[in-house]
Design goal:
mainly alpha; 21 helices; metallocarboxypeptidase activity
């Protein structure tokens, strides 16, 4: 009779060792986007390609298949959603995908991603889509090949979406986003018709970068990010990455004449970092120590960035610090004017700087475009025109450059086809979770105004973080909140905050 616990331990040891290689790969990727000398890019791509091949070899080792066969329907799988059952279930799902991917494809895709990101940085700086077009075409072709190799029952896009939001289906996500769009469009129209506008010049004054860094790190620390197990650096497009159980790297980018850029991207990435720091350390490298999904990950970042970070209560606590840090910019600005400015609602070109009400329209545009790119209905050469057309139709503004248009995001250059919809799912999840947290904890606004953020963080650690990947994202939220994915709490939250600012019904 097989010793199922011994076999399970062997499986876990194998994946913990593989995680070390993946973390080294992440470190190389972090270094490539933060510190790498310009001329070192090609060799870095070769290094990451080599490691990716080694990781693929370990992830497709026949021993894994044999272990999984022994563990199938063993006592360890009898109780659903336990750490052991989730480990076996999620490893099996990943293994069955990985063995369908030729090593050649994995290595080629890995190499193309690094070259893609390096090319994108230059193309965006030079506003030159033509230099980016060939590598983007290759990345989309490789994404298509990956989807076909893995296989799918519904739409081709399902195979890629599953990497980021396990068990989600394109048709389901499309329906959720269409419902959200139907709710957002009239809200944005009401705000526009209100005729009210904040004084945005407040945020465009001079904010020295050194002081921005101090304030951003202070805010991240106060909401719970542990800098003894993480760090903050500068990059072209902010991100968070995990190098080890006690090494979470977050990044931001600064604009000394626009306060929100760095501050809110720091809070956003710190939200990601809080999730990573809150995952069970004893399961690091295994499904119970991994994030449930990218949608859940984005729910954490958007929650801290927006629902907390743009709240009046947050600034009731933090505004005095900001005024001390930037006396020339804020000494004559009442907190109400500042709060209105950081919650301005107006169609804009740049997704990462978009307001909460229009942000999801940016995501819907990308979701529609990448499906068309993947299917071949939209040739890569026609992307700039298609992008501009959708922005004109759906947001009422037209990009004047590709740098502020189809070149603004890093995701496609990194081959992350299927990633974008998780941002909107995250926004929806975050509002559902916060409604439940308010019900469970009471006066959260009073806590924020007093600088008390730990009750919310502890609640998230108990209800979200500690479960790791034991549940798919949508199921986890339903277990916590009692309702399936629903955009109504997000609209309710937006109306409650924006209604008083714009004099509209909420």
């Amino acid at each position: 009779m097989a010793d199922h616990q011994q076999i399970f331990d062997q499986l876990c040891d194998h994946y913990r060792e593989t995680a070390k290689l993946e973390n080294i790969n992440s470190l190389l990727g972090w270094d490539e986007r933060v510190l790498l000398p310009e001329n070192a890019g090609a060799y870095r791509a070769d290094q990451i390609t080599l490691l990716s091949g080694m990781i693929h070899d370990r992830n497709t080792d026949p021993k894994i298949g044999a272990w999984l066969e022994e563990l199938h329907e063993s006592p360890l799988t009898e109780e659903p959603n336990t750490p052991a059952e989730a480990t076996i279930r999620r490893i099996k799902s990943d293994y069955l995908k990985q063995v369908k991917l030729p090593k050649r494809l994995v290595e080629e895709f890995s190499h193309a991603r690094i070259i893609g990101q390096q090319t994108w940085v230059k193309a965006r700086a030079e506003n030159n889509f033509g230099t980016f077009e060939p590598i983007l075409d290759k990345l989309i072709s490789l994404s298509r090949e990956t989807a076909e190799a893995i296989g799918y029952q519904g739409e081709q896009y399902d195979a890629l979406l599953d990497f980021y939001e396990p068990e989600a289906k394109t048709a389901q996500v499309r329906g959720v986003l269409e419902t959200l769009k139907d709710q957002l469009v009239p809200l944005v129209a009401e705000i526009k018709e209100s005729g009210r506008t904040p004084n945005m010049d407040i945020l465009k004054r001079h904010y020295p970068i050194a002081q921005q860094e101090i304030l951003g790190k202070s805010a991240a620390s106060q909401i719970g990010f542990d800098f003894s197990a993480g760090r903050l650096d500068v990059t072209h497009h902010p991100f968070c990455t995990t190098i080890g159980p006690y090494d979470i790297r977050i990044t931001t980018r600064y604009d000394e004449n626009f306060f929100p850029s760095a501050f809110f991207s720091t809070l956003h990435e710190a939200g990601h970092g809080l999730y990573e720091q809150g995952l069970p350390k004893n399961w690091f490298g295994l499904p119970p120590g991994n994030a449930a999904s990218l949608g859940i990950h984005e729910s954490q970042s958007r929650l801290w960035e927006n629902i907390v970070g743009r709240s009046y209560a947050f600034w009731s606590h933090f505004y005095s610090d900001a005024r001390k840090m930037f006396p020339d910019a804020l000494s004559d600005v009442p907190i109400g004017d500042f709060h209105f400015a950081i919650n301005e609602v107006t169609p804009s070109l740049i997704r990462v700087e978009a307001d909460e009400a229009t942000y999801n329209l940016h995501i819907i545009i990308r979701f529609e475009l990448e499906q068309a790119l993947l299917s071949g209905d939209l040739p890569v050469k026609d992307l700039p025109g298609a992008w501009n057309e959708k922005y004109t139709q759906q947001l009422g503004i037209t990009p004047t450059s590709d740098a502020d248009g189809c070149l603004q995001d890093v995701h496609w250059s990194a081959g992350l086809m299927g990633y974008f919809p998780t941002y909107s799912l995250g926004n929806i999840y975050s509002a559902q979770l916060l409604e439940q947290a308010r019900e469970d904890l009471g006066d959260l606004d009073g806590m924020f105004a007093a600088g008390e953020f730990m009750p919310l963080l502890d609640w998230l650690r108990e209800n979200v973080h500690q479960h790791g990947e034991c549940y798919p994202g949508a199921e986890l939220v339903e277990r916590v909140c009692g309702d399936p994915i629903d955009s109504t709490p997000l609209i309710r939250y937006l109306r409650a905050k924006l209604g008083p600012l714009y004099g509209i019904e909420h």
